[in-house]
Specification:
Pfam families: DUF5785. By secondary structure, the chain is an alpha+beta fold. Helices cover 35% and strands 9% of the residues. It contains 5 helices and 4 strands. Strands 1-4 form a two-stranded antiparallel ribbon. Strands 2-3 form a two-stranded antiparallel ribbon. A hairpin with a 5-residue loop joins strand 2 and strand 3. It is globular.
Length: 106
């Protein structure tokens, strides 16, 4: 896929390599963006490359195909839904992440 910018370049990593959910969280303004509509968020940021680990990059829209819910009232609610989708669909590069997949609090 041709990315709109290099996921490891200045625009993608802000000077240092960042991974997964941290990149998604940087797209949110906790004060101004909520309630957040998932479809509008994906329309705006869907092509953004999300580096999952040292080898794998996917688009934000690929992750959000699995995020449950259409609107989020706050950052924590949003963050939990994204994290759950990432863990359950092999977008989470974290040793031991599988132990959290069936956790109902995620």
């Amino acid at each position: 896929m041709d990315w709109p910018h290099d996921p490891d370049g200045e625009e993608g990593s802000e000077g240092g390599r960042k991974y997964g959910q941290a990149i998604i969280a940087k797209k949110i303004d906790e004060e101004a963006d909520f309630p957040l509509n998932k479809a509008e968020f994906v329309d705006e940021f869907g092509d953004v490359p999300i580096r999952l680990d040292h080898e794998r990059v996917v688009s934000l829209s690929e992750i959000f195909e699995h995020v449950e819910g259409e609107e989020f009232g706050g950052f924590i609610e949003f963050h939990k839904a994204v994290g759950k989708a990432m863990r359950e669909n092999d977008f989470w590069f974290y040793e031991g992440a599988e132990q959290f997949v069936n956790n109902s609090t995620a």
